[in-house]
Write a structure and sequence with these properties.
heterodimer, A: 311 residues, mainly beta, 14-stranded antiparallel barrel, two-stranded antiparallel sheet, globular, B: 873 residues, 9-stranded mixed β-sheet
Chain lengths: 311, 873
């Protein structure tokens, strides 16, 4: 039998023929574990790994800051409208740190992400319903003061993501940091999100977005009412990408705060380049903070609004 | 349909006859009555008793009764009639006018019909009437019925010429041609239902003036199917270009009327309250009527009814009674009167214008398939049984020693009222054949001195007894010619001009038909032949001396002087044969033989095969070729045709004995040249051969001339059509057949109509369609296309989702650039490029390297941008 075009055999079997196949770049699994849940640092370009001024969410990043915190306990809860122009997640985050002694503290935190419902299509493009994904992150950390100016913090994390009916991804990972304080400068270095990998339906393993992280934070107060804090972080990811974050905060009378930041990601770093703005107010231990992420087409317009309490 | 008219009485009696003279002493009644079982009552007419008075009684009361009075000078009679609730008392045989003297001489004036209240039992009536001094005899009136079945059958008057069994008919054709077709001076009284005397096939031979209605006692003849059918068998007008023939129906074209029919009507069909019933009349008087009105033949297709419970068959006591049945005394009186006085004056002398002295009464034997039938079993009556066209006794026919003759009685076609015709079965149908033959014989032999006994002798002795098995107990088969030549046969003259012509191993003989002494043609011829001249010369058919010769009997039924012929077949080829012909009469009486002639037969010739078209046949693989063959045999011998096929492609069908057709179906065999063979062989082995050579050309498969564009639809219920002839062709020019398959028949409904696909979208989705065109050989070509029905709100499609490897992105109908960006949920752009895509040729993004999770797709094509969540799993 003579056939006009055998290429249609492929169409019958699996769907339409593509005119060309282009490959997407590789990514790391469960990238949402690198989202900054802290509404303070979220306004500072996601910089602040070495900041000791707001430790409620330190279980998400660096618990080595807890021993140097001026607060005995720092609690926080926030709402995060993530990537309203993209995946449209609604994140509910919470965290807390408690300093048991001058030398030791611990932290816990968690996040629940409600994803946007998406339409399911089979291999022939036939609609097959929809699914609403959801994610979850649970952390716990502990910080020890090793010397007067050096601390160690370790976090353990469990993250899972339900992406389709009966398909759930999960992984364990950990952070480990050293923090050294010298005068008004905090310097930290460690590893972030080092942990297990995730397997896809195709059988391939995908690593978590682990990185080697360094950070520096400097803060000062002048004229008794004006406070400045500057922070910078850098990550070198196992994927080869590099990311850097820069943030600044101005505080007035430790009551009102304005923040700004820049995050730069190279290549297809898990977090791309964007700009953030933030503001906050604190009174009698209660703080309210807002952060706005912009200058990115995918995750732009992300808003983080949180409330915290510390003493 | 027959129906008994009156309700069944509880008790009936059959009166017996007392032969003692009526005593003068009125105190001593001699009349006896005999009670019968209650089952007998259904056989008699209620409220009617037939009475025979003594001479003295008649003298006393006749004047009063003839004046129409019910009260008479007989006090005993008056008293009895009062007690019975008398309605009427009338003569059974009314005043016969000029024939009254002989009527009285025979005592028929003493028979009366007494009609009284039907509530009075016949037992009581018999007792009351029998007790009257001067009453010699009483009897209940028998119910009578027509002896016919009304089963329709093929219109075929086989009784006049039987092709199923030669000779099993009344042998009338030769008589019509050479003796008579009937004479109007011969009158047949048809005692039956009324004859339709206006029937175009009967009217010419009917005499309404001599007819009488014995049911209503007037001249108004009411046409009945049975009587009209019977009449048609006797004397339907012959040679008038209409309907059927009658046995003695005359010759209309020659202006010769047939015998005259008069209707003595004893049956009348009436309809009341939607039910049809048959009234019966005075049978005794009807029997007598014909004799007083010129008839010499009395035709009776009726008999007594013993089916008391009216279930259509005789069972139990009904059979017993039927087997013991005898003619009633009154009917017997009528029968005997007819026989004695038909054609005669009051003194019993033949009337000068009558064709016969005395009458012949013919009755049907009955349809109860038993060995009795009344009144047919009257000793002076000719009883007629029925045969089938195969010469066997009809299953219904009565039989026995009382049956004198038989005649055709199954599927008899004859006239019925309304100028129409139908088939009927029964001894009723056989009987008029005999009456017709009797009338025909009287027509020929009738005249002064011809008597009823002479007629009976000719009928009975001339009957054909060779065909009818004696065990049938039906007598002989009535035979017109046999009766005509009985004691009256004459040998024909010799054949004088015998000549012969050879034709292969046939010899065609011809000669002139000679006359007999009465100038009638010879009835038959015996052809004697052999290769031995001496044996032929010595052969003598009359003396049954036929040693060393073969014979052939020929009955051409040709007039004198016409050329008769015979063909001798199966002779040896190229041999000398000797022939002579001996003419003979029917009985047979033989003439002197003709001179012996010699004829030399010829050689055998083979059959001839003619093909159309002739010569080699060439056809394409898809074609079918037909070649017709005709066969002829120059010698007219039988021949057979055999066919040897060459491949699966050719076959042969016999169309007739002399034609056939070969069919070559190209698709059934591979390309190549084949030779099939047709052979015609005559019975002597001489044969002809025709080689049918045919070539089947190589097949060229069909071709797809162009592709079918993919179809994008944006609504449900949208109809479309594709003319497949625009996309396929066949180099051989043969018509193609199409079929299709599709991957998802829920997306659209497709239907093939000739070379067009007609479709309707059913739901959103994608299906691939494969159209295959096939030629007769099975070679094919296919075209695939996609059929996509997309929600109009969905400008593109990105699938599968979730994706494992390749993400396909389908856009619009036409291929166009589309900007695709895929980013992780945290904003990492993993793909950002411009690709070419359409609804049917989608772009594909390999997401193998991407970790499972949520991604964000941004798609820009045309002037719009679209986003969607993509999940990699």
């Amino acid at each position: 039998m003579m056939r006009l075009s055998d290429r249609f055999t492929a169409l019958v079997l699996g769907g339409l023929l593509c005119c060309a196949v282009a490959s997407a770049q590789g990514t790391e699994a469960l990238p949402f574990i690198r989202i900054d849940r802290n509404p303070v640092s979220a306004g500072m370009g996601f910089a602040g790994a070495a900041s000791t001024s707001a430790t409620a969410y330190s279980s998400f990043r660096n618990s080595a800051v807890i021993p140097f915190s001026a607060k005995t306990m720092d609690l926080g809860f926030n709402y995060q409208g993530w990537a309203p122009s993209g995946v449209k997640n609604t994140n509910l985050n919470f965290g807390g740190a408690y300093k048991l002694s001058e030398k030791m503290g611990f932290s816990i935190g968690g996040a629940y992400q409600m994803g946007q419902e998406y339409d399911i299509f089979d291999a022939s493009g036939h609609a097959k319903g929809s699914f609403k994904p959801s994610d979850m992150v649970i952390n716990a950390g502990v910080g020890f003061l090793l010397t007067e100016s050096l601390s160690l913090g370790v976090n353990a994390r469990y993250a899972s993501q339900g992406i389709a009916d009966g398909v759930s991804l999960s992984a364990f990972c950990a952070d480990a940091f050293l923090l050294y304080r010298m005068g008004g400068v905090n310097m930290t270095a460690g590893i972030s999100s080092i942990g297990s990998s995730v397997k896809g339906d195709d059988g391939a393993s995908y690593k978590l977005p682990a990185s080697a992280t360094i950070g520096v934070d400097w803060s000062t107060t002048f004229s008794d009412v004006h406070g400045i804090e500057l922070a910078a972080d850098a990550d070198y990811f196992l994927s080869g990408n590099v990311a850097a974050a820069f943030g600044a905060q101005y505080g007035y009378n430790d009551l009102f705060f304005l923040r700004a930041g820049l995050h730069v990601g190279t290549g297809n770093a898990v977090l791309p380049t964007f700009v953030t703005l933030g503001a906050g107010v604190k009174f009698s231990g209660i703080s309210i903070n807002l952060a706005y992420l912009t200058a990115n087409e995918v995750i732009g317009n992300t808003i983080t609004a949180g409330i915290g309490y510390s003493f | 349909m027959k129906r008994i008219l009156f309700p069944v009485l509880a008790v009936c009696l059959l009166a017996s006859c007392s032969k003692e003279p009526v005593p003068q002493d009125e105190e001593t009644p001699e009349v006896k009555t005999e009670l019968l079982s209650a089952k007998d009552t259904g056989a008699f007419v209620p409220g009617v008793t037939i009475v025979k008075f003594s001479d003295d009684m008649i003298d006393l009361i006749e004047g009063d009764l003839s004046a129409g009075h019910v009260a008479t000078r007989s006090m005993g009679l008056n008293q009895a009639l009062d007690e019975l609730g008398i309605k009427s008392i009338k003569r059974l045989f009314p005043d016969a006018g000029e024939f009254e003297p002989r009527t009285r001489k025979e005592g028929l004036h003493k028979w009366y019909v007494v009609t009284y209240d039907e509530a009075v039992t016949q037992t009581r009536a018999a007792v009351e009437l029998g007790a009257i001094p001067g009453v010699e005899y009483t009897e209940p009136r028998q119910k009578v019925r027509m002896l016919a079945f009304d089963d329709p059958s093929l219109p075929d008057q086989w009784g006049f010429g039987n092709t199923s069994l030669k000779g099993a008919d009344i042998n009338v054709q030769y008589a019509w041609d050479n003796y008579t077709t009937g004479d109007p001076s011969v009158i047949v009284s048809v005692v039956d239902a009324g004859i339709d005397m206006t029937h175009p096939d009967l009217e010419w031979n009917c005499s309404p003036d001599r007819s009488w209605n014995f049911v209503d006692d007037n001249r108004n003849i009411v046409a009945g199917s049975h009587g009209t059918h019977v009449a048609g068998t006797i004397a339907a007008v012959n040679n008038n270009g209409t309907g059927v023939c009658g046995t003695a129906g005359g010759d209309y074209a020659l202006g010769k009327r047939g015998v005259t029919l008069i209707s003595s009507m004893i049956f009348k069909t009436v309809t009341s309250d939607g039910e049809t019933s048959t009234l019966s009349g005075n049978t005794s008087y009807a029997l007598k009527w014909g004799a007083d009105h010129g008839a010499v033949i009395c035709q009776n297709s009726w008999g007594y009814d013993y089916d008391a419970n009216h279930d259509g068959k005789l069972t139990g006591d009904e059979v017993t009674r039927a087997m013991a049945a005898q003619p009633s005394a009154s009917d017997a009186a009528g029968i005997e009167y007819f026989i004695k006085y038909a054609g005669c004056d009051n003194q019993g002398n033949q009337l000068p214008d009558s064709p016969m002295k005395g009458g012949v009464v013919i009755f049907s034997a009955g349809n109860d398939a038993i060995q009795n039938g009344a009144p047919a079993n009257h000793k002076d009556v000719i009883a007629v049984g029925a045969i089938t066209k195969n010469g066997t006794r009809a299953t219904f026919s009565c039989y026995g020693d009382y049956v004198s003759l038989c005649a055709p009685g199954v599927n008899i076609l004859s006239t019925v009222p309304g100028a129409t015709y139908s088939n009927m079965n029964g001894t009723s149908m056989a009987c008029p054949h005999v009456s017709g033959v009797a009338a025909l014989l009287v027509s020929y032999f009738g005249g002064p001195g011809f008597t009823n006994e002479m007629l009976k002798e000719k009928l009975l002795e001339g009957a054909n007894r060779k065909l009818i098995t004696p065990s049938f107990k039906l007598g002989g088969l009535v035979d017109v010619l046999g009766s005509l030549v009985y004691q009256n046969d004459v040998a024909p003259a010799a054949v004088t001009d015998l000549s012969g012509t050879p034709r292969s191993n046939f010899v065609d003989l011809s000669w002139t038909v000679p006359a007999d002494g009465n100038n009638r043609p010879a009835y038959g011829f015996t052809v004697v032949y052999s290769t031995d001249k001496a044996a032929v010369d010595a052969a003598d058919p009359a003396g049954k001396s036929l040693s060393g010769v073969k014979t052939l009997e020929v009955t051409p039924n040709l007039p004198v002087g016409k050329e008769a012929s015979a063909t001798l077949s199966g002779l040896d080829f190229e041999s000398d044969y000797y022939f002579k012909v001996v003419a003979h009469s029917y009985s047979p009486l033989y003439a002197e033989p003709s001179a012996t002639i010699k004829v030399t037969t010829l050689k055998n010739n083979p059959p001839v095969i003619t093909a159309s078209p002739s010569g080699k046949v060439t056809l394409k693989a898809f074609q079918t070729a037909k070649v017709s063959f005709t066969f002829s045999e120059p010698d007219t011998h039988d021949f057979t045709v055999t066919y040897e096929g060459a491949s699966e492609a050719d076959s042969y069908t016999t169309k007739s004995k002399t034609s056939g057709e070969a069919t070559i179906v190209g698709v059934k065999a591979d390309a190549g040249t084949y030779t099939a063979r047709l052979t015609a062989t005559d019975r002597y082995g001489e044969s002809s051969v025709y080689d049918l050579v045919y070539t089947i050309l190589e097949n060229n498969p069909p071709q797809a001339t162009k592709g079918i564009d993919n179809k994008l639809f944006t609504s449900i219920g949208e109809e479309f059509s594709i003319n497949l002839g625009d996309y396929f062709t066949d180099p051989d020019g043969e018509p193609l057949t199409y079929e299709f398959t599709y991957s998802d028949n829920s997306v659209a409904y497709l239907n093939l109509s000739a070379s067009q696909i007609i479709g309707t979208t059913l739901k959103y989705g994608l299906t691939s369609v494969t159209i295959t065109a096939k030629d007769a050989k099975g070679d094919s070509a296919s075209i695939d296309f996609m059929l996509l029905v997309r929600d109009p709100k969905q400008a593109y499609s990105a699938y599968p989702n979730p994706v494992v490897k390749n993400l396909y992105i389908a856009t619009g109908q036409n291929l166009e650039p589309a900007q695709v960006r895929v980013a992780s949920e945290t904003g990492a752009v993993v793909f950002d490029d411009t690709v070419q895509a359409s609804a049917f040729v989608p772009a594909s993004v390999d997401m193998s390297a991407c970790a499972p999770g949520k991604y964000h797709l941004t798609l820009k094509f045309g002037s719009k941008e679209y986003t969607q969540i993509i999940v990699k799993k």
